[in-house]
Give the backbone structure.
Amino acid sequence: MDINDNIESPLILKVSFNKYLNQYEDLIRADNDFIAANARRVLEIAENNPILREGFSDLSILKNHEKEIEGILQDAFSPILTKNEIKTASVPFHNVIFNSSERFKSILKTAGDEFELQIKNMPVDQTYIIACTIILNFCYGYSLNFKRPFFYEIPDTNGIMRYYKILYNADFTEIIPKENAPKITQKDYDELLDNFENIDLWKEKFPPNSYEFNGFVISNIFDVTDDQSISNIKSSLIGEDKRKDKSFMKSFYDIFRSLFGLKNLEVGFSIYIEEENTFERVYGVGMNSFLLNDLESKPCSDALCDWSYNRLINENSFFSISDVDRLFKLSKGNAPHVKVLHEQGFKSAIFAPIANDDGLMGILEIVSKEAKALNSINANKLIDVMPFIISAVERSKNEEENLIEAIIQKECTSIHPSVHWRFEKEAKLFIKDQMSGIEPSFNKIAFENIYPLYGQIDIKGSSEARNWATQEDLKLQLSAVKAILKAAAKIESLPIYDQYMFQIDDFLKGLQTNFQVDSEQQISEFVNDDIEPILKHLYSTDELRVEIDNYFNQIDESVNALYHHRKNYDDTIALINKEMASLLDHKQAEAQAMYPHYFERFKTDGVEHNMYIGESITKEDSFNPIYLYNLRLWQLQVMVEMENSYYQMQSDFPIALDVASMILVFNQPLSISFRMDEKQFDVDGTYNARYEIVKKRVDKAFIKDSTERVTQKGKISIVYSQKEDEREYLRYIKFLQSKKYLDDDVEIVELQDLQAVTGLKAIRVSVLYHKDKDDKAFYTYDDLMKEIKA
């Protein structure tokens, strides 16, 4: 086999010992007879084997001249040092080693027959260019520093990966240009400096096989496992979202195993929460805490004994337990950190504080199921590692704080993506002023000439439903109390029981005939102040104990009242809001893809939403009224879909409530600005305030000269003031009627005047419903109710 087979390179490789042997020509004339005699011995071997000087590329010659090569390299590979030094003689760009020290042979033997030696960090796709840079150095004197550290990764007897750094000695190599080799000029060199990755350019300047390489390289190899482990720890801690990476903790374990030279080793972490003086688990894939075991958190005083507590938290110093079982017996299981290790089967451990100048942030936990494997001596290996872990934890802590802030911003004071660019722009100006020493101020965020859209799906009769639920709960509670008092009066005839029962009857009568806003408060005060002390007194009576227990079991601790019907009502409202908001959010993603616009929604007794669309929001010269019309049609269609979705899931709710939908149309563009105090957008200007007034009051508006609300169950109400809006929405309705979204009973009504707002009208049209998503039939609201109840 030829060395140059299947390799594209500017170099034709030949193994040659010519330059190496030339040094012995000088040594023959040395004053030292021993050195001169040894030189003659080496040159005699070379004279008898001229191929070693001439050079060869046939690998079989290496095998056939193995003894001779070993003889001439004896000085470079001293027999005295061969069991200590890690050294090889090899062909560059190949894993072809033809001479090596005994120590290197022993390392490979330990790795096993299956192990394949490969140089790490050798970029295979760049070997051609690397060869060219070597030619530039050797032949043209251009000093290009392209050296990168190369390594071997070789497992030891325990399967622990050890790292060996390779340092090349190229003193015995020579590179000679062939006749077809283009001469490299300064201009060529300057061009190559800016085109490292342009392989075609390098091949043009250094054609394949245009130079001869004669010689070999000696590699001096050093075990740098500790240094490399520390470097790997540093590298592994750099980067984002490591806690989401399944392989991160496995590789982290492997690095620590290499550092300590222990196969049976695991690494864990726990966070220190100073305010609560507790340890908490780190959340992440594969993250463990051996101090907490299966708990989420634990008070520090319960996790550590007094000595270990003081060592870690007060002194910020690490400590080791070399024999867990022995210490467990000595402490009689009373040392909590020893006990928790013993329960998990660990035999030795090191606990190290992750602390900076501000104090303790967490604990690094290193554990092994082998006794004495971890101890106070090898614990010192952590001294070089801890600065990187501390730095990573500091960064992680900052990132977590930023993430928490981001979540709060998103969930509580959301800035919609469509306008985020504007806030970002102001924030950059704020930082710029701050860094320049100017008093920074966050300027007003405003958008002009934008079109508003508003819609709501409102729960009909929510106040009446809640009042009914409250009445029913109070009736049940008062009746239960009355039954206990009645039984108590039979056991002990006291007039006070009769007086309380009279008062309860009076409350029950009031609930039936005249429920007031303060009725709930009056009854609550009566039960808490008068009844509960009596019930606690009566609890000592055996005949009443079970009945009193049953009463208190019905009382919800969070509201200190019977909370059955009201809970059904509250749960229903919460479920309706959750489902409707979720559907609207899902649909909104589709609408944003059509054309970006501002969107916000609110949960009340139902779900309402605001949308704003216009040039100043999109920041591009792309807005056209067609996008406004499209969004209006989309909104109308989605409101119908939300109605359908609601009634399809209505049977899943604890209480059957109805909803009514409304859209408010405002055809004039307006301005909005972000109110810093309320963390939301609001309209600007007196004229635009009319829009906000209508929004707040229109759903309670009546049809002119009637007591009928404009919003009705089973119908969509579209409120507007301009004739052109009426024509536009009648077109949309006709289109949705053709799609069987809406019925044919379109009506146009006038609304009673609202405060400072006159001339409003509404288009009302019935929604067509499906019983479920797969149902192809269409129903009016009344038909649907009949079908559901049938």
User: Anything to note?
Assistant: The radius of gyration is 42 Å.
